[in-house]
Amino acid sequence: xxxxxxxxxxxxxxxxxxxxxxxxxxxxxxxxxxxxxxxxxxxxxxxxxxxxxxxxxxxxxxxxxxxxxxxxxxxxxxxxxxxxxxxxxxxxxxxxxxxxxxxxxxxxxxxxxxxxxx
Amino acid sequence: xxxxxxxxxxxxxxxxxxxxxxxxxxxxxxxxxxxxxxxxxxxxxxxxxxxxxxxxxxxxxxxxxxxxxxxxxxxxxxxxxxxxxxxxxxxxxxxxxxxxxxxxxxxxxx
Lengths: 118, 110
Known about the structure:
A: 7-stranded mixed sheet, 4-stranded antiparallel sheet, B: mainly beta, 0% helix
């Protein structure tokens, strides 16, 4: 079946513009995660959804970052008034179940959206 | 908060040689996962370790979880050019949030 997809794959924004990044998780997956990966670094957690509920947004860097998953499937990460430090790859991942992880229930990452803020 | 450190940051390996990358946490982990990211790609899940002292093998890759569940290692034998990429370890909280290390970037010389 299809994996996690993200769009756009590349986005160039002028400083101050708003952007919206889309994630289509694997069909039926309950858990959805957003991560931010700066060049040469490991992914950093941003936020977590279980179905439509945003259960953890502790990793969002500022109130300019907003994420939603209104119907429990597709998710959108919105960044308002983009700054140069927002330049990074934004990764989405999904997992089949919610709640406690198990040995066979892993996260599947999408290809990411590379955001460049000029 | 939980910190996950990886060493070395870079690993240059001659094709056919073995190498090991290490992952250390400041706190006890409920489990640890390993991912591989090819240049320009996204993290791809390799394995999850849950039990203290657990050892798992995938062909030429051997993963180990420390007895205290605060460290882990990945050992690759007979390195091939297909092993090029960055290897990340990540500690997971029970509901799945991952705390990644900075990764070990592996370069293989033919």
